[in-house]
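Project outcomes to date are best conveyed with an example. Our students and postdoctoral researchers have been running inverse folding experiments weekly, and each run begins with a structure described purely in tokens. The record below, which covers 939 residues, was selected by the lab manager from last quarter's runs and is presented without edits.
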């Protein structure tokens, strides 16, 4: 009889266990199952492990592996015995394995649910988080194979490995016996293990981006011999920006005796560079990129910015080329920005990197910018460069990333970097597509709690070069979910920059109350109207008249800021002509002085045809290209007229944004008000209620039994009512009425008054078509109504009539929950009826929903006033409405097999709410990659 160790592979190779991961230092590795073909790799790996590490693994000197060892460690059945390896460049850097055991510690098979686990990490790669990543993946594999608990025996001196287990966040117990520490831990994810995993993910992905944005040395591959061209331009941009690190020009076509290009050391290959290269900017034709990537990987380059085009944006052949590019780079542990990228910029004083096609370096500042499109990236930079006529450049750029096809590094990675980047106060993103909406929403919520995140989102059609997950959610729903996560969602690049400039240098408003003052009554009134349109609460404009001096402005602004009834101040300015009219610099200084005297409230300026004022307000902190290269030609500041002197301190403490139109200023202010409100609410998000009457286990048994009938089904009315009742959602009973006599019997059973409804698909929830008869007080009325319905719409078998007891009159609403494969579970609410459907007036929240979120959900639809006594109507019982919202949220969160639920109508009366109809669809749950081990997007 064969023991488990002697059995050969019982399962096919589990390719879905393969994954790329980002390690603690920002490098990458590939994790995959170990197979019988890995014998030579295993031996080579073991030879590079120190004697001390071998001793810790085997508890005795173990200088080499025997042939029997090699066979045992490379032959697995992928069920009871599994081995995983972390590889870089195809070679092992670490291994982990588990062996299923019985309670006596002997080899076993299912249903035994415990396994012994052991690691071995090459010394050169210890401290990079390899073991932690392997533990996440081997635990996920074990759970898939029915193993619920790991045991590990570790020598007390092996503190690094003990820390790997204890820091993982699993529920565990520890014992000490015979000189060995024995650790046992459950593999079910806990809140702490998920928090640990996500914290590690953030640190690793942030460091991987930091390696790309702050390299110590850069090589530009593809520098032309003649002036011009992409490679030569990028080389010049890096050099002119003043990057302090080593810089190299690389082109295999360089003559062997060529030493420099544009004053930069020239090399024919990355291999010819003495010393490390942290970043390679690749600007060669697509067919030559693989050879360049291989050279970079062999030289130890940490990351790539690939400017080359000809990839997924060019069609199916290019898409395959792009996949091969990512696989090759990851095999060497490198991350990629691009391909088809515009480049990256980092203005930090110690970095000063302009590895992009932007000809001039933006001024340093506090705004981080991300764009997928190079054209949009150019537009963003150019708008921030402006110093008048439009939005003034009141602050500069910290980092800029144009990801192109974002085959590897995406907006999610850059968000991880910005989250704790001390140089970035505001993040601006132009997203043509969102590859992982669930993760982006999670990261956005965390980032927005620390700093503003302003996003322009594409219309839902991803560019050809982008690999994105399919989502069934409408574009408006995704936008609503982003807002729920704290994202400041705008529609245009102009609005993106407008909001970003306000948020970068002005405090958040404490509320919607706005003071308006200026020297133009008509401009003040226009601003007032825009405030009302944006939902703000403006005070009546204060007209200072066209005779107002700079001192008048200073005094009025100071008074408005000091007034506790104002949360923000908008100053409207038109050109003034006359002997006492203030100059631009004088007025700018007066406004800045007033804001400095009473800090804590935002100040905005709406100006008309005053380019000089806009420039004076931004003055020395503009994002316009710096003039260091032209300093010799610039006049000495002491020789300038007074009006041209900078009117702001060099540190930009009190920078005031100026806008050329009231609607732009007020739209930016309204977004800041809403974001400030979100920040305050996010500090106390509420809780997910615990209901004592929920029967989670009973619902699970019912769902399992129903799914055994088929892979996906809309369950019957009886089962629907039973399932919802397990979560405390009572659906008002409805009895089938296939004939007038059976309708009368049903009414007697329910008690009068009753309603008669046609439930055929074309008539369901269409009261406007006449398929519903209400308040039928007796049998005569019921029979007449039955006759009317059959005469109007056809035979009973076509109408599918039902009789239902009358619910108290109120407002008809609809509640829906759906599990989207990309975004996750979403709860939606709106009023029932054609008008709401036509207008798309539905509000959405991600599941699980807290009590505070349920309250805001009910109030966030445009037709919400109908629930609160609009035009003298009786207000309805909204707390009674919120309860089924919260219970339904719990149902779909606890049971992902419930993929769609509709409660319609839910009639909300002045006292209580009644669910009159419901449908439930079950299916095997979609995969939850956010609960599994850390992985990079598959390629």
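After processing, the design step wrote out the following sequence:
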């Amino acid at each position: 009889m064969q023991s488990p160790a002697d059995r050969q592979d019982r399962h096919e190779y589990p390719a879905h266990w393969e994954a790329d991961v980002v390690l603690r230092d920002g490098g990458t590795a590939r994790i995959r199952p170990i197979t019988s073909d890995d014998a030579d790799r295993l031996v080579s790996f073991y030879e590079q492990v120190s004697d001390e590490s071998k001793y810790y693994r085997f508890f005795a000197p173990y200088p080499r592996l025997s042939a029997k060892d090699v066979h045992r460690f490379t032959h697995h059945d992928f069920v009871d015995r599994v081995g995983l390896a972390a590889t870089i460049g195809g070679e092992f850097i670490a291994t982990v394995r588990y062996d299923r055991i019985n309670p006596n510690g002997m080899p076993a098979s299912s249903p035994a649910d415990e396994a012994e686990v052991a690691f071995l990490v090459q010394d050169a790669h210890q401290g990079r988080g390899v073991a932690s990543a392997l533990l996440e993946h081997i635990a996920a594999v074990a759970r898939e194979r029915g193993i619920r608990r790991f045991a590990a025996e570790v020598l007390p001196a092996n503190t690094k490995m003990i820390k790997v287990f204890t820091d993982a966040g699993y529920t565990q117990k520890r014992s000490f016996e015979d000189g060995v520490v024995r650790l046992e831990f459950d593999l079910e994810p806990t809140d702490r293990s998920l928090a640990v995993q996500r914290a590690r993910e953030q640190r690793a992905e942030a460091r991987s981006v930091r390696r790309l944005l702050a390299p110590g040395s850069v090589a530009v591959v593809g520098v032309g011999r003649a002036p011009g061209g992409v490679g030569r331009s990028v080389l010049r941009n890096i050099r002119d920006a003043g990057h302090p690190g080593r810089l190299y020009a690389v082109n295999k076509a360089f003559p062997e005796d060529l030493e420099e290009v544009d004053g930069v050391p020239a090399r024919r290959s990355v291999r010819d560079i003495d010393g490390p290269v942290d970043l390679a900017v690749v600007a060669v034709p697509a067919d030559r990129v693989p050879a360049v990537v291989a050279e970079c990987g062999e030289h130890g380059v940490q990351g790539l910015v690939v400017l080359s085009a000809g990839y997924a944006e060019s069609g199916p052949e290019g898409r395959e080329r792009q996949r091969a590019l990512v696989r090759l780079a990851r095999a060497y542990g490198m991350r990629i920005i691009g391909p088809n990228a515009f480049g990256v910029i980092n203005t930090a004083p110690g970095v000063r990197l302009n590895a992009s096609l932007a000809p001039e370096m933006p001024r340093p500042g506090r705004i981080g910018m991300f764009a997928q499109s190079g054209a949009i990236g150019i537009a963003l930079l150019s708008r921030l460069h402006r110093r008048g006529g439009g939005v003034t450049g009141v602050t500069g750029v910290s980092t800029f990333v144009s990801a192109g096809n974002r085959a590897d590094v995406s907006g999610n990675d850059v968000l991880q970097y910005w989250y704790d980047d001390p140089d970035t106060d505001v993040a601006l993103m132009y997203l043509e597509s969102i590859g992982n909406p669930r993760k982006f929403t999670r990261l956005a919520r965390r980032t927005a709690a620390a700093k503003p995140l302003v996003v322009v989102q594409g219309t839902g059609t991803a560019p050809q070069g982008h690999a994105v997950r399919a989502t069934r959610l409408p574009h408006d729903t995704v936008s609503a979910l982003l807002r729920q996560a704290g994202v400041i969602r705008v529609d245009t690049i102009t609005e993106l920059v407008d909001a970003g400039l306000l948020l970068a240098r002005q405090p958040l408003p404490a509320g919607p109350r706005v003071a308006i003052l200026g020297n133009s009554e008509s401009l003040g009134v226009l601003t007032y109207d825009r405030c009302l349109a944006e939902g703000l609460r403006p005070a009546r404009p204060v007209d200072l008249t066209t005779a107002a001096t700079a001192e008048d402005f200073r005094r009025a602004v100071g008074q408005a800021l000091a007034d506790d009834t104002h949360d923000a101040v908008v100053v409207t300015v038109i050109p003034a002509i006359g002997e006492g009219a203030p100059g631009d610099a004088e007025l700018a200084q007066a406004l800045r002085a007033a804001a400095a005297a009473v800090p804590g409230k935002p100040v905005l300026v709406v100006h008309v045809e005053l380019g000089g004022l806009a420039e004076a307000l931004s003055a020395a902190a503009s994002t316009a290209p710096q003039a260091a290269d032209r300093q010799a030609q610039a006049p000495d500041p002491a020789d300038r007229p007074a009006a041209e002197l900078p009117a702001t301190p060099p540190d930009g403490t009190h920078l005031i944004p100026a806008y050329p139109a009231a609607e732009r200023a007020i739209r930016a202010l309204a977004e800041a008000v809403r974001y400030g409100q979100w920040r305050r609410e996010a500090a106390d998000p509420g809780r997910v209620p615990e209901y004592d009457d929920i029967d989670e286990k009973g619902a699970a048994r019912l769902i399992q039994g129903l799914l055994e009938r088929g892979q996906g089904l809309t369950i019957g009315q009886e089962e629907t009512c039973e399932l919802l009742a397990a979560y405390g959602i009572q659906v008002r009973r409805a009895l089938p009425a296939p004939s007038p006599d059976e309708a009368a019997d049903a009414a007697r059973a329910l008690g009068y008054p009753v309603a008669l409804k046609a439930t055929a698909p074309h008539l369901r929830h269409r009261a406007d078509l006449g398929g519903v008869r209400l308040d039928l007080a007796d049998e005569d009325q019921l029979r007449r109504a039955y006759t009317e319905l059959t005469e109007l719409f056809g035979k009973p078998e076509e109408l599918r009539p039902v009789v239902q007891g009358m619910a108290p009159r109120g407002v008809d609403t609809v509640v829906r929950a759906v599990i989207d494969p990309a975004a996750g579970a979403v709860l939606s609410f709106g009023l029932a009826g054609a008008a709401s459907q036509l207008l798309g007036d539905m509000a959405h929240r991600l599941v699980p929903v807290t009590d505070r979120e349920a309250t805001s959900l009910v109030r966030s639809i445009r037709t919400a006033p109908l629930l609160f006594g609009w035009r003298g109507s009786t207000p309805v019982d909204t707390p009674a409405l919120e309860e089924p919202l919260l219970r339904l949220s719990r149902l779909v969160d606890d049971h992902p097999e419930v993929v769609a639920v509709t409660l319609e109508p839910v009639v909300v009366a002045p006292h209580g709410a009644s669910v009159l109809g419901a449908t439930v669809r079950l299916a095997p749950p979609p995969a939850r990659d956010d609960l599994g081990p850390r992985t990079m997007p598959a390629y």
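The two ends are 42 Å apart (CA to CA). The first strand starts at residue 19 and ends at 22. The training component of this project remains on track.
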